[in-house]
Structure formats: C-alpha cells, structure tokens
Amino acid sequence: MRIWARTPITAILLLLGTLLSASFALAEDYSVDFGADTVRGRDAGTLHCRFGYICDAKMESLGLIVSVDTSRADPPSAHIRLNGGDPGCCYFAGAAGSMTIDPHNSLYRVPLFRGAGARGSLFIENERMGTLYLRFHLP
Fold it and tell me: CA-CA 20 to 30 A from 91: which of 25, 58, 72, 80?
C-alpha cells in the first residue's frame, strides 16, 4: 500500500520538475555582454534576457543603465537605450536617444555622446563621452 501512496506523489514531483526545468530553459533566451568606456571610467557586465521583453542592467560605477529589447522577428533586431543620471546623457550618433541594431553581428562599438537630443531636422553636435560595447549570444 505504501508503494501506491508514493507513486502519485512521485509522478506529481516528476511532472513539476519537468515543467519547472522547461520554464527555466525558456526564461533565458539570449544574453548580451556589455561594457562602457567613458570619461567617468569603465564598467561591464552580462544581461540574461528573454525575447520580446525589455531587460536592463545598471553599470553602478558609471551611473548608467543599458536597456535591450530584442524580438524574434525576421530579421531579428535589438533596440538599445542608455540612460544616465544627468539629463544631458546619453545619446548615440545623430543625437538619437536609442538605436536599433542587428544582434547577429559579432561586436558593436557604439560612440556615446552627452548633450541634447535630436529635435526635428536640426543638426546637433554633442560632446563625445565614450564608447558602448555590445556582444549578443543568440541561440
């Protein structure tokens, strides 16, 4: 009789373990190595992300937050944003507040600027403050 009492519990635990391991496998669809070399210093880390969700990480020593949103669309794209503590930080080329890249390229070296955001068709030349490095690891 003990064997029958254990069998349903064992089956439930086995099913629960299978479901949990499957959800953990799906919880991390890709990763991104990132780093910044700026006038404030250097910092780096790795993001573990899911497709279709925004994931972000703070570079504590620089006071910067990098955000990545990657879709599985064909072709795939990654939307990148970098935020800092001061209102004049952080812009990409052309005074853009964000950028879209192809995550299949091996390594991105993206110039970072401090100043003002783009407004209409005005030409804005901001002060270069460093470089953002990105490397995607896709399945």
Answer: 72
* Cis? peptide before 90, omega within 30° of 0: yes
Distance separating the N- and C-terminal Cα atoms of the chain? 47
Separation between Cα atoms, residue 19 and residue 96, nearest integer Å:
42
Burial zone of 10 (CB within 10 Å; 0-12 exposed, 13-18 middle, 19+ buried):
exposed
Q: Are strands 78-84 and 64-70 parallel, antiparallel or unpaired?
A: antiparallel
How much is the pTM?
A: 0.74
Distance CA 114, CA 17 (A): 49
Cβ-proximal residues to 68 (8 Å cutoff; 6+ apart), any chain:
32, 47, 49, 54, 55, 56, 78, 79, 80, 134
| Model confidence at 56: pLDDT above 90 | yes
Helix (H, G, I), strand (E, B) or coil at 12: helix
